[in-house]
Design a protein that fits this description.
- The strands form three sheets. The chain has a seven-stranded mixed sheet with strand order 1-7-8-2-5-6-9, with no helix packed on it. It has a two-stranded antiparallel ribbon with strand order 3-4. Strands 10-11 form a two-stranded antiparallel ribbon.
- It is globular and about 45 Å long.
- It is mostly beta strands and 129 residues long.
- Helix content is 0%, strand content 35%.
- A hairpin with a 4-residue loop joins strand 7 (78-81) and strand 8 (86-92).
- It has one domain: 10 Kd Chaperonin, Protein Cpn10, Chain O, CATH 2.30.33.
Length: 129
Amino acid sequence: MTVIKGKLIPIRDHVIVSDMYFGSQKSAGGIIIRDDDGTSRGIYPRWAKVHAKGLENIDEYQIGDWVLVEHGRWTRGFQVDEGTGSIELRRVEPSSILLWQNEKPDTGIMVGDAIEVGRSTTHRPEDFI
């Protein structure tokens, strides 16, 4: 894969993300759920870290925040070396960012888990289709 050298600056309101997770997940009971990207079971939103925002993007999230991106609303990964080593980045559609948070999400929690004090509910990815 070709590595792009130099700093990328997104145009308009585009968003560039890194650290999008496609690997297996582990349930609370310790069961490993294999990587299912590319299958019908793998259709669910994914978390990614904001790497850069275009100058016209006025959304509240900042570089370094984590965003939940609607399934399939990202480009294929591309390698960029900004002087600190190669990193895989993707462009996502700003209108497909469902929510954001400052801290890295807990990978032990499935997408759709509702967390409240003393109570939690788990939704399967297919519940969202």
